[in-house]
Write a structure and sequence with these properties.
single chain; about 220 residues; mainly alpha
Length: about 220
Amino acid sequence: MFRFALSFCLSAACAVSLAQAEDLHLQETGSAAVLLHSTFAHGYRHGYEEGYHAGNADINMGRLPRAKGREDRGLSTGYSSRYGSRKSFEKGFLAGLKAGYSDGYLGRNFRAVATMRAVATALDDLSLPADPKHTYFDSGFFSGYNDGFARGGSGNSHTAQIDFHQVGCSQFHPTHKEDIPAQGSYCEGYRRGFALGHEDGFVLRPETVQMEASK
């Protein structure tokens, strides 16, 4: 019995269960699915929370906003190897940190939970057999976030929130023929990441930040 339990707990399923037990973000109603599918999104959620609290603390203490690239000093990413790629998690953390710090400093609502719920819509019901470890989904989410951020930060967008179902996906370029079936998973991640990045890009526009800071 003991050997069976031990061998089971060395499985990927047990690793996920342990990660969920350690991280309350992975138990959030409505948003946990996207954090489990994308290590980048999971890192973003951690970074946003840390950044929001840091920004809120700085403004309440009357401090000037931290210099660009310094927001992460003294903050823990909360990464665990059970979550997936460290590189992807840390990229997400830095993206979330930037967005969260701005929101906290400028007194905006804590929007990470709502935005994550929006991009996690119907994800639990999807079947992605060609991508069992969600590698392509995470890659798509990261690429989508960057493209969405650039689009949202440009003058071509007039609203922060967009419907990810309306986002096109032409970024998938498989290296090997056997990767082609994973396109669906990549595009699911890309569309959802694009929507999240678009909102951040729009909210973090210099003119938007300056206007809200002057209030």
